[in-house]
């Protein structure tokens, strides 16, 4: 085991002929460098990988993952593989694949990958089908597309599945709806809901990388711009905070009064989208909802307004309505479609309304995905160990697992924290103290 483990740690497997569908194997060297770069910032995942190599907790477990195919995801796939799993990967979004990373996973690690950046809808779904052909025992999803196809069009795969994990807010919402309607056929761990996931990935990861995507797509100056953030949840808070940091005048729209109030007290202007539509220079939706920007808003927007989305699905901006309200469109830059409205105004749609941080930039920085994917790896191990006692429900990540990831992250940053003294433990546990 030791020799095998050592070998796995230092090298990729010998290239094998693996069924896959990626853009070009010639990109693999670039992907390799990108993965190595990300790995340097993924110390928690590295330490889990070392444990996995020794203990082989996933020995022989077949996993189908439907995730954004990025360098960070590649490092998660390698960790699972090194834990003994037999992994296949497809994209969770047609625009988020890093083709070079996909090629490297196939060529150097023998991991089947089905993902090509810019794939059309049919190819996207055929890739999900290919990942299900792997006959998974565990599904790993980002948005619940894999689970919903398994539950509807590929029910024959359900017999093998013992459980799954879900990465994002939108996926967790869909899965809870499935569980409520009694159609979910196996347990899922809501990785998104771990503190070490949403408090960091959604807030700091999405916050920074969404700005990165908008800036890379447009090269606009944010200082002095009116930047409208729709949705003040975990992602929206991070985005609003970072846009303000770059000097934008940030306007928040919400439907939840408590979140709206929080945004007000955090110092942002809050108003309805009808009001904001008239003022905004740049808009970004991040709600998990649909038609947040729609024709009534397009009609009010200024000439040259830029609209984008960082929520999971490309339904937050009503693109069919934008098409209907316009007389023509042209691509002015990569990821920028300029719509000429019937009254002559121009509205610029970024990245086809898909998550702009993944479409035009590189997604979240590796150091934040380090925690999310540590949660993923440990949640898979948890499902393998505990699936017999789990029902067909959506479960939170166990608290001790969540705390372990936070502790490992702090250690990797060289930060020590205090511990409770016995006296403090007693004080906190007692209801009679306090007089
Ligand atoms: N781009 C990325 O990389 C990335 C990363 C994590 C999550 N996500 C996705 O981003 C979306 C938001 O995730 P989150 O974790 O912030 O969710 P969240 O539930 O914490 O926040 C969503 C917020 O949007 C608000 N909202 C809903 N409908 C609205 C509307 N019509 N107008 C204004 N506000 C509205 C809700 O009240 C809520 O406060 C989800 O689709 C999630 O899957 C994307």
Determine the structural class based on helices, strands and strand pairing.
Answer: alpha/beta
Span between N and C termini?
Answer: 59 Å
How do the strands of the widest beta sheet line up side by side? 9-8-7-10-11-14-13-12
* Shape assignment: globular
The total beta strand count reads 15
Return Rg in Å: 22 Å
Taking the sheet with the most strands, its summary is: 8 strands, mixed
Count of alpha/pi helices: 18
Percentage of residues in DSSP E strands: 15-25%
Write out the distinct hetero groups bound to the structure.
nicotinamide-adenine-dinucleotide
Describe the structure.
The strands form 2 sheets. The chain has an 8-stranded mixed beta sheet with strand order 9-8-7-10-11-14-13-12, with helices on both faces. The protein has a 7-stranded parallel beta sheet with strand order 3-2-1-4-5-6-15, with helices on both faces. Helices cover 46% and strands 16% of the residues. It is of the alpha/beta class. The structure holds nicotinamide-adenine-dinucleotide. Nicotinamide-adenine-dinucleotide is lined by residues 168-170, 198, 202, 206, 230-236, 253-256, 259, 286-289, 292, 310-312, 355, 357.
Question: Could you provide a short overview of the structure?
Answer:
The chain is α/β, with parallel strands linked by helices. It has helices spanning 2-10, 28-40, 43-55, 71-82, 99-109, 121-132, 145-152, 169-180, 195-218, 234-245, 257-265, 273-279, 295-298, 319-325, 356-359, 366-386, 399-412, 422-429; strands spanning 62-67, 86-91, 113-114, 138-141, 163-166, 188-190, 226-230, 249-253, 269-270, 282-285, 305-309, 326-333, 336-341, 346-350, 394-396. Helix 11 links the parallel strand 8 and strand 9 (269-270).
């Amino acid at each position: 085991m030791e020799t095998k483990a050592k070998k796995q740690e230092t090298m990729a497997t010998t290239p094998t002929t693996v069924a896959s569908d990626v853009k070009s194997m010639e990109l693999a060297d670039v992907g390799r460098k990108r993965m190595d770069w990300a790995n340097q910032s993924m110390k928690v995942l590295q330490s889990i990988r070392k444990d996995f190599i020794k203990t082989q907790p996933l020995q022989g477990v077949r996993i189908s993952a439907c995730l954004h195919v990025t360098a960070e995801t590649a490092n998660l796939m390698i960790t699972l593989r090194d834990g003994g799993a037999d992994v296949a990967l497809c994209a969770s979004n047609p625009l988020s694949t890093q083709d070079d990373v996909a090629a490297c996973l196939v060529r150097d690690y023998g991991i089947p990958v089905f993902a090509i950046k810019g794939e059309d809808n049919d190819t996207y779904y055929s890739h999900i089908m290919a990942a299900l052909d792997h006959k998974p025992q565990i599904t790993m999803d980002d948005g619940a597309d894999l689970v919903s196809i398994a539950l509807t069009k590929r029910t024959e795969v359900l017999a093998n599945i013992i459980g799954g994990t879900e990465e994002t807010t939108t996926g967790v919402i869909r899965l809870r709806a499935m569980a409520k309607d009694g159609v979910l056929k196996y347990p899922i761990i809501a990785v998104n809901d771990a503190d070490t996931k949403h408090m960091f990935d959604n807030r700091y990861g999405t916050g920074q990388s969404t700005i990165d995507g908008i800036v890379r797509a447009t090269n606009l100056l944010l200082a002095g711009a009116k930047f409208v953030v729709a949705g003040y949840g975990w992602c929206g808070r991070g985005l609003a905070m970072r846009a303000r940091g770059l000097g934008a005048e940030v306007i928040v729209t919400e439907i939840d009064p408590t979140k709206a109030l929080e945004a007000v007290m955090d110092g942002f202007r809050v108003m309805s989208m009808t009001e904001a539509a008239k003022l905004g220079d740049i808009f970004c939706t991040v709600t998990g909802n649909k038609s947040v920007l729609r024709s009534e808003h397009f009609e009010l927007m200024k000439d040259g307004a830029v609209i984008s989305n960082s929520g999971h699905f490309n339904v937050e901006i009503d693109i069919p309505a934008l098409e209907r309200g316009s007389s023509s469109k042209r691509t002015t830059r990569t990821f920028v479609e300029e719509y000429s409205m019937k009254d002559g105004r121009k509205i610029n749609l970024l990245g086809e309304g898909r998550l702009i941080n993944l479409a035009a930039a590189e997604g979240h920085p590796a150091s934040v995905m380090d925690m999310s994917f540590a949660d993923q790896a440990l949640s898979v191990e948890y499902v393998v160990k505990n699936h017999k006692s789990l029902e067909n429900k959506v479960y939170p990540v166990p608290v001790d697992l969540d705390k372990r990831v936070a502790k490992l992250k702090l250690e990797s940053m060289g930060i020590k924290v205090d511990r409770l003294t016995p006296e403090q433990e007693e004080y906190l546990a007692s209801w009679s103290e306090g007089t």
